[in-house]
Batch of 2 targets.
Target 1
Amino acid sequence: MGTTLFSQGFIIGVLATGVRLAAPFLFAGLGEVFAERSGVLNLGVDGIMLMGAFIGFWAAYTLGSPWMGLLAAAIVGALMGLFMALISVHLQANQGIAGIGLQLLGWGLSGLLFRLTFGAVTGVRGFPAIEIPGLSHLPFIGPVLFRQNILVYLAISLVPVSAFVLFRTTLGLKIRAVGENPEAADTLGVSVYGIRYLCVMLGGILAGIAGAFLTIGQMNMFVDNITSGRGFIAIALVCFGRWHPYGVLVGALLFSVLDALQMWIQVIGAPIPYEFLVMLPYVLTIVVLATAVGRARGPLALSKPYTRGER
């Protein structure tokens, strides 16, 4: 077994799988970076992912196109993000409780809709892998990075785009100002409510796409609770990454490669209980989070409601 673990084929397989598994964490985590940078903690990411997973699967199956599934998932994500923004920004409900409620809503509603429409596991045509000409046959790095489906390429591309928007544009400056000191931002003419609505809805869109990735970009099917808590892990990765897109990328790759490693170890039939292997990436993630997050500081106004004129 030792020879297999250190073979080039095994390492390439683990890394290629890890890159693919990182995509939903990137979509959901980047969306949550925008929401939290604006001061809104959305714990309902997992529920939005579940609804995006089902609606994306249903639309792709019904309309015969994974692109229509992706569009439908983004729309339902935007609507659920709008709902979260309405509750947390305008109605000023406790953001933690509102997020948990949204997660339970997404979990229950996606399972109910699946039983009413399909009732049994059904396959669907998803996004195929795309080999990048001239790059996919490069030694080692080619099969790891350049033989993925288009959603993986999109997720990775969003990392520098998100960093540029947040730290190099006027919009990003407004988002960070609202998340740090909404009173001062309001005084300077920034619409605190508008920025928070925009960021939470953007987070919802990306969470919906993250869910759709599972059903039409990875597994090509839907099962109840298909996210298995990935939305909560994405929120944890935002803290791990210190609310920075590149930090989220590092965290997503770390968790996903560990997850891929335990899968491949099971494939080669290592004499290790599979329960331990499945648990391993989660335990290591908790350890890393416990050591890294303790020194991190989030946006000062995170999870604090804002009312114009009050201090």
Target 2
Amino acid sequence: MSAPLVRFDDALPLLAREIAATLGAEQLAAGIVLRDATGRLAFFSRNDISPVSAENLSARLRAVLGPYARPERVLVDPRATGAEAILADSRTTRVIAGEHSIRLIDRRIVGADWVRSPAPAAEGPPRFVFASLKGGVGRSTALAVAAAEVAREGHSVLVIDLDLEAPGLGSLLLSAETLPEFGTLDYLVERKVGVPDDGFVADLVGPSRVPAGGRIDVAPAFGRRSLEHPGDVLAKIGRAYLETIGPEGAVATVFDQIRELVDRLVDRARYDAILIDARAGLHETTAASVLGLGAEVFLFALDEPQSFDGYSTLLASFAQLAPPGAPLPEWADRLTPVQAKAPADPARRKEFNQRWQDLVMRVGPSRPAAELGGEIQIPEGFTEVPWDDESTPDEEVVPVDRPLMQPIAVLSDARYVAFDPLRRREQVDEKLYSATFGDLLRRVGAAVESRGEEAP
């Protein structure tokens, strides 16, 4: 019987197991695993290995990893050409591979922004990102209602649409007369040939006529030019996600470009809150919105298996940015799940909450050191932290009072199925929306009021 074919999911644990068994866990922990763009693996040792041992282990790794062994060098001695640069590379991620914690350099052609370090909390007005892994969850409607509520309280709010392939906020909140010349899509396209000037940035924003005591400004994804030239829109989208290279060779991914765009829009005027609509799914632009803007992030989900399957992937990705044993990072407390179209029955919402908490405990970011009963002792020189989920009670992984463990609800409400606040103005009447969106609005409102109290 032939050996089972190694698949992508098998390769990393197999390499870690083989290195630990042959060189020892300390050498595995000290070295770096490189996964190239095709998924093939190599181990860069920080300690010298004799030629005979290296040859034997290389042969063993090729046999174990099959197609996922890098053909030219699967085991690299620290004296080899190029090894010093890899071993000094700071862009490593600690991940769990089987029974071991390893340091990984994961080279991706697409998706690299998902392994970028999350930005610290942004200074200035509070920022809120509305994100989801599927469309049709009511994310943009909730954002528009939140904008109306912030403005009803007499504040100024900027709404930014980053859902470039399924934009909606421009048509929801702007009329033909107030639609700006350009949209966020145009900024990302123009950014490929230079840095747009301040006048161009000003032309990205238009005022909404949705009733408000304060002010709602909107930076739509599509501006007037795109609506006048719809045949060019796909050509623009095809270029919006490209990297740019500065005059001194600095590379700016879409992550960097979106962060730059949002910072410039926020700097234009004094706003009390910034509400950002992220693209649905796990696209590169979603990484920029969720990780790169220093924002509070609302993660919208329906109570259905597809939502939990998708968030399993996203939460596991977050966990790789918050390694087990380390204190729970500050950014993790800026993630709040939202049960969208939730039932009015509290018992049914409680069932969703329990499933969400189970998911976070199973795959999500790790618990803080304080809850571990003291500082984690990490072996000198690295990193090796045992993965021991059998002896750790689930309820201790992330304390249930953390925002990530406390879903809030936006209730299902047929009155918001056809949302059109410019024509159906009763939909942005506080008397109508307060019961449906109350939890969400209180969360946004509290942050805005807190910011107002801090401002000089």
